[in-house]
Amino acid sequence: MHEYSLIQSLLDVVDAEARSRGATAVHHLRVQVGELSGVETELLASAYELFREHTSCAGADLEIVPVPARWGCPDCGAEIVRGDVLRCAACARPAQLETGDEILLERIEMEVA
Ligand SMILES: [Zn+2]
User: Ligand 1 centre and the CA of 82: distance in Å?
Assistant: First the structure.
């Protein structure tokens, strides 16, 4: 499952980060999940519960922040509202997706000895 491999690479990243900083514990993770990333946040949360044991994240909660999709004009930067035609009213340029398809590890809170 997509979510499982995401969580596994997330845990790898956090593990490496914690090790390189000499952290004794990780307390909190915050991950942004774009609306169009194709990731089910519930599946992501349960995959995390499943895999975090015996990692540096065993005692850390995972906060998942959904990021709504947003489009903009690549020329003038005008925001293009969802539901409208996905084209800039001023320049007639096709809209460009600005946020909404990303998965981003935004923040790691850890304890450093
Ligand atoms: Zn425009």
Answer: 15
| Res. 91: pLDDT tops 80 | yes
Which residue bears the tokens 């993770």? 29
Distance 10 CA to ligand 1 centre (A): 37
Mean pLDDT to the nearest integer, 25-30 = 97
Query: How many Å lie between the centroid of ligand 1 and the Cα of residue 40?
Result: 32
pLDDT for res 84: 67
Helix (H), strand (E) at residue 17: helix 2-20
Residue 83 Cα to ligand 1 midpoint, Å, equals 17
CATH architecture under which domain 2-112 falls: 2-Layer Sandwich (3.30)
